[in-house]
Amino acid sequence: MTRENLEHTAVPDRQTLEWHEGDMPYSQEFGDHFYCREDGRLECGHVFLGGNGLPERWQQPGPFRIGELGFGTGLNFCETWRQRTERRVEGGTLHFVSFERFPMQAGDLDRALSRWPEIDRERQALVAGWPEQPRGHVDIDFGGAMRLTVVCGLALDEIARFPEAFDAWYLDGFAPRRNPDMWSEDLMRLVYTKTAEGGTFATYAAAGFVRRNLQAAGFMVERRPGFGAKREMLCGVKSTSGVA
Prior knowledge:
Helix content: 25-40%
Number of helices: 7
CATH class: Alpha Beta
Largest sheet: 9 strands, mixed
CATH topology: Rossmann fold
Distance between the termini: 38 Å
CATH architecture: 3-Layer(aba) Sandwich
Radius of gyration: 17 Å
């Protein structure tokens, strides 16, 4: 496994964490937990993988690229990697790229992910490869055709600079009422622009303005049943007739 910081920018501001129920991180700045209190790992499978038609869509040779808004604890990455290990094909590669303004320290990642024994192997590998001071592009090659890039900085700036398009998006910022900038029309249009033809998105969020911003960006948006107590979630596909 190799690790490198590809850029040398200033370390982003840090969030102030509280720990609820022992190992559940809570952001004081955004007034929100980092994942669903019912079961964040199962929610990831229902919303982000299921909403993007995964793992079925990566069951073919060649590269597949996932973009994520908000790396947080790395839970979505670890669960995606776990399912990738269980259902992969020869000749296929997966590049998971996450845009995160406030990267956590390795010890906080370790603590937050320790509640799920199902992703213990992935947690240990992520923590072992995580730099002491995450900044710029944190790029970790885990071998087995699995690569992680965490881009530290403002999503609107960093996605615009990213050179490649994505086959699927996990839209997983803090709740829209807590962090509306992460769900703005400008950012959703940029996500659309950086989506490959036939690419998809999924999100736990179902707020009206989020749905309207995704539709205005050009996505064909579908409502589906949410996870647990959440009534609805959104997913969709890049429409060739949409407005970029």
